[in-house]
Amino acid sequence: MTTVVLPKGFPYVIASTFSPVWLLIWQSIRVSRARRAAGIKYPQLYAEKAEAEASKEAMVFNCVQRAHQNTLENLPIALIGTVITGLRYPILAASLCGVWTLGRGLYTIGYATGIPEKRTSRGGALGSFAMVGLILTGTWTVGEFLVAELL
């Protein structure tokens, strides 16, 4: 039997890595509502360019759908960075993950205006800064583990 000892504060990492679940549920609901309002039928992933140019609802659907898709694309990087960083710096990791999740919510709100340029206004870029922090601290933590292993 193997015993894994987690650092003090690691429950915060666990809590923060669960926070995107609620974000994704909220984004999914927004996508469903926007899809219905735009009249975009399944399995069509996005409104066609002509549809989006002709209908504000179709453009909003595309923007909300893209915000959700972009979150899904970035989620593995955020979670891996959080867990790895959390092995040495649990409070920092949990904080960065929480800021990333908040930033993704603000990104979605800005994007859902139907004006893509607004996705980073209203605090939407906050998630990008947190992501850079997770990448850098995760890389640093991996380096620390490798150096300790070599010594």
Describe, in plain words, how this protein is organized in 3D.
- InterPro entries: MAPEG, MAPEG-like_dom_sf, Membr-assoc_MAPEG.
- The protein is mostly helical.
- The chain has a single domain (10-146), classed as Membrane associated eicosanoid/glutathione metabolism-like domain (Four Helix Bundle (Hemerythrin (Met), subunit A)), CATH 1.20.120.550.
- It has helices at 10-38, 49-54, 56-86, 90-111, 126-150.
- Helix 1 (10-38) packs antiparallel against helix 3, helix 1 packs parallel to helix 4 and helix 4 runs antiparallel to helix 5 (126-150).
- It starts with 9 loop residues before the first helix and ends with a helix.
Shape: elongated
Termini separation comes to 27 Å
Could you tell me the strand content as a percent range?
under 5%
Under the CATH scheme, the architecture is Up-down Bundle
- Give the structural class: mainly alpha
Percent in helix: over 70%
Summarize this entry quickly.
With 151 residues, the protein is mainly α. It contains five helices and no strands.
Give the topology.
Layout: H1 10-38, H2 49-54, H3 56-86, H4 90-111, H5 126-150
Helix pairs in contact: 1-3, 1-4, 3-4, 3-5, 4-5
List its salient traits.
151 residues; mainly alpha; Four Helix Bundle (Hemerythrin (Met), subunit A); transmembrane; MAPEG-like_dom_sf; Membrane-associated proteins in eicosanoid and glutathione metabolism
